[in-house]
UniProtKB/TrEMBL annotation:
SUPFAM superfamilies: Insect pheromone/odorant-binding proteins
Gene this protein is translated from: OBP19
Organism per entry: Glyphodes pyloalis (Lesser mulberry snout moth)
The protein, known as: Odorant binding protein
GO terms of molecular function: odorant binding
Lineage: superkingdom: Eukaryota
Gene3D superfamilies linked: Pheromone/general odorant binding protein domain
Length: 92
């Protein structure tokens, strides 16, 4: 349920449908937090970066802002597991 809540916030904040990234990306976002789920569309990265930018989760250099990302995850009821899922995706 938690992952679904965060996924809905990401989808609402982004222009994923307007970008024409397709339904596979939407499915990937919906299931992103499910342990063991394998991403199916290579455009998921573009969608997550777009949404992160609109949610003001990125620093000026494009890196994920750890404080704002953690705040976003916790505001949706998430914890350290969900935060750890974001970090490798955006922080190099």
């Amino acid at each position: 349920m938690l992952g679904k809540s965060m996924s809905i916030n990401i989808m609402k904040s982004s222009t994923i449908l307007q970008l024409g990234l397709g339904t596979k990306v939407l499915r990937d976002i919906q299931h992103y937090w499910d342990p063991g789920y394998q991403l199916t569309d290579q455009n998921i990265g573009c969608a997550l970066i777009c949404a992160s930018n609109k949610l003001h989760l990125l620093q000026d250099n494009g890196d994920l802002d750890p404080y704002y990302a953690a705040t976003f995850v916790r505001s949706a009821g998430g914890g350290n597991y969900q935060i750890s899922c974001l970090s490798p995706s955006f922080i190099s």
